[in-house]
Amino acid sequence: MSIHPIRGKWKSTMTDRERFNRQMHYQSVDRCFNMEFGYWKENFTQWDIFVDNNIRCTPEANLFFSFDRIQYIGRATTFMSPPIEEKIIEVKEDSKIIINQDGLVVEVPLDGRGSSIPHCLKSSITDPEDWKKIKTEHFDLNHPSRKLDIEAIKKDLPDDEVRDFPLGIHCGSMIGKIRDMLTFEGLAYAVYDYPEMVEDMVETVCRCVEQAMDQLLPHFKFDFAAGWEDICFNHGPIVSLDFFKEVVVPRYKRINNKLKAYGIDIWYTDCDGDIRPLLPLFLESGINCLFPYEVKSCIHPGVLFDEYGKDLRIMGGVDKMCLGEGPDSIKKYLQSLEKYVARGGFIPFCDHLCPPNVKPVDYLYYLDLKEKMFGMG
Fold first, then answer.
1. What's the burial of 242, exposed, middle or buried (CB within 10 Å: 0-12/13-18/19+)?
2. What is the percent of the chain with per-residue pLDDT over 90, rounded to a whole number?
3. DSSP string covering 89-144, please?
4. Structural domains present in the chain
5. Confidence of residue 371 (pLDDT cuts 50, 70, 90)
6. What sign does the dihedral 56-164-344-275 (CA atoms) show?
């Protein structure tokens, strides 16, 4: 399918790769790196600019808006491999109950609509015996599915010497995906009822990540590392700081040692909610960039930049609520970010998937204003 962009790429004198690396290292750039995180599924059926132009997904939207290119690889084998086979248990009038790839029994809409977390009914892991079975079947480091086809991956990417966009290596999830397996409530109980089981889960996942990294790192010149946790809500993390420091941080440090050995010193993790209690531990571990940094459940990104200085980077941080309030709020909020974008280490974009309540005309106003303020023109 051919995508006909609705906007031109921002004026540039650097490649996307040069720009990203310099901006993330607080060095001078031609302009701000231009990207967005993505959109709710509903946007692709409700926004006229998407419907009229047959834009059906975020990768197509990225081309449609001519955003700078950024990519990462390596996620496939950092967790279950093979994944749990998805099965339908029951079909209702408007929903179906399935076992998903995390082993959860969940209820989801029949039409597939909705961008929220599915309603969880039951976890496949409730005690150490359950974990032992899942570990044997889906976390075997010797399973053939864990061997990456490096040559096939290379064929999908330009050579490092000519690649003009930043490439990241995925560093998995030490506790967020475990939360997905156990459920929020299940993890809260398991940390106290089965602490050895939970630590073994973290260690097992860490080994999966290390194995994937060991296969990829020698063959590609990565510009950054990317991870996913999503273990914070509007009142902070769902695990105790002691647990995080004693169980999770040592594994992060092992991963960071591998990254440093290959010259990778920018590492972001995707963690929503109020991350402030965890931030010192992230930085201690080597994670020095927040993504997509939700504002309303945390605080204005400038507050953290003022506190942590150039030890911290942020990608995201544009309050989605302001985008939904129209041009005046959009302009006021972007003006509050201006000095932080100028100092570096900050790539502003909507602080999660852009919701459908944002009017397309206001979104285009936001993109135009962002270019005027943070681009070259």
1. exposed
2. 85
3. EEE-SSEEEEE-TTS-EEEEETT----SPPEEEE-S-SSHHHHHHHHHHH--TT-G
4. 16-82+125-374 (3.20.20.210), 85-123 (no CATH)
5. very high
6. positive
